[in-house]
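Postdoc handover notes: sequence design on the structure in folder B. Input tokens:
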């Protein structure tokens, strides 16, 4: 924990508490790495849906449904968590929901498309709730000048959690394949491994992380849902006061849409277009996570020095290069270059965005504003993967055109980022009633 000094943290915050907070990133990263990116995504298309023309679209549709649910419910859930000082309590409930539904993915078998889609929807909804709620603790832990490095530390630590889960699963898959065990038997076991690691690692978070918020007395006399909806309406009415936060949300819708494509479709693209085998894909994703961890750590410190806006914009340029290289790659070696750049940009862009959202969030509305941030992120997760799947389906499987079109999302995000004034957005947050 010597990666940053005590003066980077708010008064009363101990380094062990930041470690506990970062352990949640460590815990839940296995879900995105193993389930959404490396193993279950490709298994869904090639095994459960048996390589049907609509398989990739069905995968992106299931994810889009889950993101739509989160998009319309998370802002109210965040407002409720703020008013009732219930971030930690709700985080525990959604963590349990994600662990159980991830383990239930082991029940999905070839041909069972409906069950697999339903379980992906449920597990990803719970995962997304947890991701938003844990992010809302960041401004309570770190001082404004250190949001970047602490956010980067969490993201970087999270990628190591993803690598641990993927490494254990890769070892098991290689063992199973050497004994002739089919994917229909070894993929379910990887789901159980992922769920177990998620649950065990998150225990550290709940032991060390403190709920510092205090309930709003006015909200306690009103129904929880009604109070949260009233607060949410007040926030939207005051949106003009938070113009820079709104520009950031618009930017996030586009650039995070491109990131969502990389997370949800990297394995499918590598195997379907470039010709990677499953174990090669898992190694690819492992290395990508290693690069992402390094990017998150390094960029977290850099963005506190050069500014959040410049740091985020630089990563979007890197993402455009990634899409172009991936689209024109014809060999595994060429695609490795795209994966390496994607890894560096993934950790840094996600860390920079989360820290910048924290700069613009009023201190008494952290979960609510991160709920709005999640609204934008989940909208982007519908726009990106679903458009990719639709282009692939409409062009009879032309994924190169789909990945090239993804570069446009990052370009639009970069243009919208130019509208953001960090100093003005921070001043608006501090002036909030």
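Designed sequence:
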């Amino acid at each position: 924990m010597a990666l940053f000094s005590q003066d980077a943290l708010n008064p009363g915050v101990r380094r062990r508490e930041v470690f506990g907070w970062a352990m949640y990133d460590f815990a839940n990263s296995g879900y995105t790495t193993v389930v959404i990116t490396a193993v279950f995504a490709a298994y869904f298309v090639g095994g459960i849906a048996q390589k049907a023309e609509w398989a990739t679209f069905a995968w992106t549709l299931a994810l889009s449904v889950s993101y739509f649910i989160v998009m319309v419910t998370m802002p109210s859930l965040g407002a409720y968590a703020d008013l009732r000082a219930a971030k930690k309590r709700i985080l525990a409930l959604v963590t349990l929901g994600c662990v159980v539904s991830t383990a239930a993915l082991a029940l999905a078998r070839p041909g069972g498309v409906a069950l697999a889609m339903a379980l992906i929807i449920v597990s990803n909804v719970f995962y997304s709730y947890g991701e938003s709620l844990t992010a809302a603790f960041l401004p309570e832990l770190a001082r404004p000048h250190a949001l970047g490095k602490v956010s980067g530390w969490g993201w970087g630590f999270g990628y190591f959690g993803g690598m641990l889960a993927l490494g254990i699963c890769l070892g098991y898959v290689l063992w199973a394949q050497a004994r002739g065990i089919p994917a229909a038997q070894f993929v379910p076991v990887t789901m159980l491994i992922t769920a177990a690691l998620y649950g065990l690692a998150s225990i550290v978070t709940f032991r060390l992380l403190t709920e510092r918020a205090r309930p709003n007395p006015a909200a306690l006399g009103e129904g929880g849902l009604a109070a949260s909806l009233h607060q949410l309406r007040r926030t939207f009415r005051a949106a003009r006061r938070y113009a820079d936060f709104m520009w950031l949300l618009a930017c996030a819708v586009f650039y995070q849409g491109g990131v969502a494509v990389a997370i949800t479709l990297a394995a499918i693209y590598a195997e379907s277009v470039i010709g990677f085998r499953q174990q090669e894909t898992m190694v690819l994703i492992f290395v990508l996570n290693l690069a992402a961890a390094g990017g998150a750590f390094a960029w977290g410190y850099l963005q506190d020095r050069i500014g959040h806006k410049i740091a985020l914009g630089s990563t979007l340029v890197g993402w455009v290069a990634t899409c172009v290289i991936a689209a024109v790659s014809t060999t595994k070696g060429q695609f490795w270059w795209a994966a390496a750049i994607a890894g560096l940009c993934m950790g840094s862009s996600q860390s920079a965005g989360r820290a910048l959202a924290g700069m613009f969030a009023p201190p008494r509305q952290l979960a609510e504003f991160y709920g709005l941030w999640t609204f934008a992120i989940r909208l982007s997760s519908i726009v990106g993967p679903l458009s990719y799947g639709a282009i692939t389906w409409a062009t009879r499987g032309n994924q190169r055109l789909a990945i090239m079109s993804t570069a446009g999302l990052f370009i639009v995000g970069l243009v919208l980022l130019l509208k953001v004034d960090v100093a003005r957005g921070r001043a608006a947050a501090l002036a909030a009633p």
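Context for whoever picks this up: The mean pLDDT is 84. Don't rerun without checking with the PI first.
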